[in-house]
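Lab notebook, bench 4. The sequencing result for the construct came back, and we need a structural model before the next group meeting so we can plan mutations. Quick request posted to the team channel:

Model the 3D structure of this chain.
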Amino acid sequence: MSTKQKTVAELLNLTPEGRYDYMIEQVKANKVIWSLQDNDGCVMLTTEDEDCIPMWPSEETAALWAVDDWKDCEPLAIDLDEFQQRWVSGMEEDDLFIAVFPVQDDLGVVVAPYEVDQRLTPKSNKKH
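Done. Here's the predicted structure in token form:
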């Protein structure tokens, strides 16, 4: 797995699963996950089945979504510890899902918060 930073154009061309993997890698490295907020709170998206909060790996990628209906939104940095301690359980209680690294024409992978939390939590302290 490369730690080289990908360009935004490269990221936008990844598959939804590729963006999910990239986001997990970046959140682990930077200890922060990004969403968007406006005066009413976090941006929400609705699929046919789920209400979602979109999340991104960086301020720059979150800001790409702040256009049209969301032009008044600003990227919101969520510390990894706060996400894992407060957001995951709160979103589960509210039956909210995460839209992982959506891009303009693709909502991305939609997963339960605990699934993202599991991928962010090291299985052990050893590397193999």
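The first helix runs from residue 8 to 12.
Will bring this to the meeting.
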